[in-house]
From TrEMBL:
Superkingdom: Archaea
PROSITE patterns found in the cross-reference section: HTH_ASNC_2
Name listed for the protein in its UniProt record: Putative HTH-type transcriptional regulator
Organism: Candidatus Bilamarchaeum dharawalense
Domain HTH asnC-type: 4-65
Amino acid sequence: MFQLDEKDEAILDVLRENSSLSIGKIARKTGIPIATVHHRIKKLRAEGIIKKYTIIIDQVKLGKKMIAHVLIKAMPKIDHIALLEKLMKHDQVEDGSAITGEFDLIIKVRVTDIDGLDYFVLKFLRTFDEISQTESMIAFRNIVKE
């Protein structure tokens, strides 16, 4: 297991806030020399600690105001992970997990409104022979740790 020190943590904190900052700006914000920041970021990437740099899109401003969590029960003898990987290809599916309990999978879906959720469940999920049952739960509020 890779151990982070205070410098690594400081660099990661700055990158979490804004991954597009230059190495020079990261150095200024952390008080760590530029060469050290460069070396540390290179090491964190090589170790797989930093997997990628990305953006956060405001889905509400794009009209996708509703979030639903959909529980999915697979048919017997179905490969749950393979099914989850198929579901994850849909652009309205944001996240998914294989879970324990009565249901096998849970996916987080972002849609425009109730009609969008209805369409997603009835016209997309119900086309899968591998799915025996679904249960949708609409989120009243979603708070994301950024």
